[in-house]
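Weekly structure sync, notes
Attendees: PL (lead), two postdocs, one rotation student
Agenda item 3: pending single-chain targets
PL asked that the sequence for the first pending target be pasted directly into the notes so everyone works from the same version. It is reproduced below exactly as submitted, 169 residues in total.
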Amino acid sequence: VVDTETRNLALEDAYRKVRRAVRLLRRNNVKLVYKKIDSTLRGNIGAEINAVMDELNVKAIIIAPAFPEQKRTVINGQLIVNGVPLEKTEYACDPLSPVSSSRISMLVERQAEKKVGEIPLSHVRKDVDLIVEEIRSQIEAGKRIIVADAEIQSDLERIAEASLALNIL
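Predicted structure, written out during the meeting:
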């Protein structure tokens, strides 16, 4: 675990700090990287994703910011907190890092400046091989970042298994 504390840094500083942390992991032969983002999408998510992707030279990344134990789910590409769309929660009004939308792909695409795709819950709940094919299809269509719906822990486990099968972040 590397806590970079970049949520409220300037965009460029967050990018540099995260890239430096990932470089350190790579130099120490870390084989599996999991990039944690704020589960309410605050901070420099796009810059941090770009830093990890640039340093590891990965072709794509899966974003699944659900945290079922904390009642944070992703349904139809939107982050839902305690049954309420993110943009209607107190997190949207964070004085240092406000969030303007519940639609994850819109927030990430604007920040990361990369094409973003989505995998709906109906696909996430299918066999892992089918999730892998869905991810491949989106990558072939030029999507570099793919947002996956998840409502329960087993959804996240299938997403992780598919990501591992493709060796993507």
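Discussion points:
- The longest strand covers residues 72-75.
- Residues 40 and 91 are 7 Å apart (CA to CA).
Action: rotation student to compare against the earlier draft before next sync.
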